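ENCODED BACKBONE
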Amino acid sequence: MPGQLVVQKYGGSSVADADRIRRVARRIAREAANGSRLVIVVSAMGDTTDELLALATAISDDPDPRELDMLLATGEHQAATLLSMALHALGVPAIALSGPQAGITTDGRYGRARIAAIEPARVGRELEHGKVVIVAGFQGRGAADTADGGIAGDEITTLGRGGSDTTAVALAARFEADRCQIFTDVRGIYTADPRIVPDARQLPLIGYEEMLELAQQGAQVMQTRAVELGWVNRVVIEVLSSFEDADGTLIAEDPHVEQRNKVRGLAHDRNVAKVTLVEVPDKPGVAAAVFEPLADAGINVDMIVQNVGHHGATDLSFSIPAVDLARAKRLLEPVVRDLGFRELTTDAAVAKVSVVGAGIQNAPGYAARMFRTLADAGVNIEMITTSEIRITCVIAEADVETAMRALHTAFELERPEPATTSAADPAALRAG
């Protein structure tokens, strides 16, 4: 009878050099010796992706998207083949496959493709032959539009930052894996970034919705789309350390959510810029004229605040990723001129801090406690936005550490939660 099917993903820090690749190979060999059938997804080694991006931008200020995807995909190819070689050296049958070879097809958008389908034949065949299948993450095969309006088939497309997480969860969903494990350089999900908050506590279990909010608001342990895929397909995700044998964090439906602290964690994001349009004409169509060019350019607008209009004009502020600030200014300058705004101002020295927890909007006092905590810590709030499970404030970037530590203490996140059996039982969560 075949053993459990386990999908494991190893991040760039886990395979950063030859010694770490050999360490990962030994871990995989132990799992294989226990009878598991293994599909392994790898990211590029260490900072390889950043180094390749730097090389591309040294060649061209605006690298061709198709060629850039061809270049970036090689990072994962290196890691996959080297890990396969390390397993061969241990006597473990293994094969490295690119994303397309593993049957991963995408919608064809360069640099930010989404997985459209996974054809299981090749991976299934290799598993039947007793091999560990190592898949290069972050990539797939897509039919992309060409410059002359045609369609190019069999193009390498990449899934965007953190795309190897998405690859792993998608494979786990497609093959109905018994386990989906994400190995990284931390033990799991914490109540806050432990590099900023020394008292941050590891969570044994966190719900999909809460993890999705934390990821969207800056927590970098898991990629947002991977959490979405896990949630939709009911894939229980285990986040573990590749450097030590220790319990990690399960991302799953939380059956004990009502028994837990309403606030589960904090997130922060320094990649934020604030844009303010001063004395915007207060009339129909102005907001569309501002935000449509940003949407067409793929710039995500997050928080939007519009003041009450006076004398036919109002001020409009919103936040965007800091990396998009220069492009946003170029797009908005003609709008400012054409519609007669007084001026456009920007501030890249801001950041977001977020309080996340299921049900906080249905429990009184959480927003007030957050605002009072920040005030007592001398932190000024510039913008506020909320969802059913999140409260986010834009503050000065210099105040992030002060704010995070104060909020962590105010919401008593250092206190252990009541013990539950579910946190240690992935099989029970899957069955539920």
Q: What stands out?
A: The CA atoms of residues 103 and 119 lie 5 Å apart. The chain has a mean pLDDT of 90. The radius of gyration is 23 Å.
